[in-house]
Design a protein that fits this description.
single chain; mainly beta; 16-stranded antiparallel β-barrel; globular
Length: about 350
């Protein structure tokens, strides 16, 4: 009985201490946004009425709300030309911190696989264009309506993880950029040659699917990070058009995905690399598709030059893309980007130029 009384006193004192901390907690709110205007030029774009385009490529709104120390709410809405109302809401979620090793997140959030996917928004992405793995979203969905268990442990040597499962809709072949070309590159180049089938992307992107995956990583002093990722979804409904007979057939698409990521930081030098493999089964055939890229950047005061190499392999053909550019941030609110692109696909070459002005507020 005496022990019970002592434990009761300790419990009450602990709760009073916690309540006292909550009483002194100042509610945190943060609202910000941005507008990205983009200029595109391509030297030999087939099937387009023009080779030059200027438009608002992206406009975003971010709201963070933290009523207590361990609970956060987040809303991110991003407008892009050709996006639906549902796609306008990129993120809307709540996350509760149990301890450093366990956070529980629920709602809509960016799929936490490829670390580059978390740099999806224009102001935080060093380059003017996103890597194909993120722009095409053939390997994993952009975001999910799901539950995530995540956390990290350690100081100099740190281990982190993220396990998640829930529903998602695909965003494959979704047009972006001033010309509406980015995000459609794989379909564009494949259609330059004779293809065995084509896909009805409109129905493919609107059907609801379920899946899950995980990301684990180890890092040393935030200088070197190595990660491993897996994703598996249900068999997705997909409508296939066979040109030989001119008919649409309902099919099932199964994806088994795994990937590796690497990041090296030293002073102002930053190297990011990823490699992804997707065993895709459709119409009874299994296709080994893969995506990989390397980005090297170095910041000199307000100027960050960068280079990027990418390879997208699907159905026996490769899209090779090279990029080189500069990111200039004279003040916090303004970012200027200029980037040269070169695509190499079988016997086809394509050169492009991207200029972007991003205003944050």
């Amino acid at each position: 009985m005496k022990k019970f009384g002592i434990l009761t006193v300790i419990f009450i004192m602990t709760m009073v201490s916690v309540w006292g901390q909550e009483d002194t907690w100042e509610v945190r709110k943060h609202i910000t946004g941005y507008v990205a205007t983009e200029f595109n030029y391509f030297d030999n774009l087939k099937g387009y009425d023009k080779n030059i385009g200027v438009s608002v490529a992206e406009a975003g709104f971010l709201f963070n709300y933290q009523p207590i120390k361990d609970l956060k709410f987040k809303v991110v809405a991003v407008y892009r030309p050709n996006s639906s109302v549902d796609q306008l809401i990129n993120e809307i979620n709540a996350e509760y911190k149990v301890n450093n090793f366990l956070n529980v997140k629920a709602g809509r959030f960016l799929t936490p696989l490829s670390p580059i996917n978390t740099f999806y928004y224009a102001p935080v992405n060093v380059s003017a264009t996103l890597p194909l793995i993120t722009n095409l979203h053939q390997v994993f969905p952009l975001n999910m309506d799901a539950i995530s268990l995540n956390g990290s442990i350690g100081n100099d040597f740190k281990f982190g993880y993220d396990l998640f499962a829930g529903g998602y809709r695909n965003s494959v072949n979704m047009k972006s950029g001033a010309m509406g070309f980015y995000g459609t590159e794989a379909d564009y180049f494949e259609n330059l040659e004779e293809t065995s089938f084509t896909v009805d992307y409109e129905s493919f992107n609107t059907s609801l699917n379920f899946g899950g995956g995980g990301h684990i990583q180890a890092s040393y002093k935030d200088m070197i990070t190595v990660g491993f990722n897996v994703f598996k979804g249900q068999k997705e409904n997909i409508n296939i058009m066979l040109p030989q007979i001119g008919q649409m057939f309902p099919e099932k698409l199964q994806k088994d995905v795994y990937g590796f990521n690497f990041n090296f930081k030293h002073n102002s030098l930053n190297v990011v690399a990823e490699w992804w493999d997707n065993d895709m089964t459709i119409m009874g055939e299994t296709y080994d598709t893969s995506d990989g890229f390397v980005i090297v950047s170095n910041t000199f005061n307000k100027l960050t030059p960068y280079v990027r190499y990418e390879q997208h392999t699907a159905f026996g053909s490769d899209i090779i893309r090279y990029a080189a550019g500069v990111n200039y941030k004279p003040i916090f609110e303004t970012t200027l980007k200029l980037e040269y692109l070169h695509y190499d696909y079988n016997d086809y070459d394509l050169n492009g130029l991207v200029a972007s002005v991003i205003y944050s507020f």
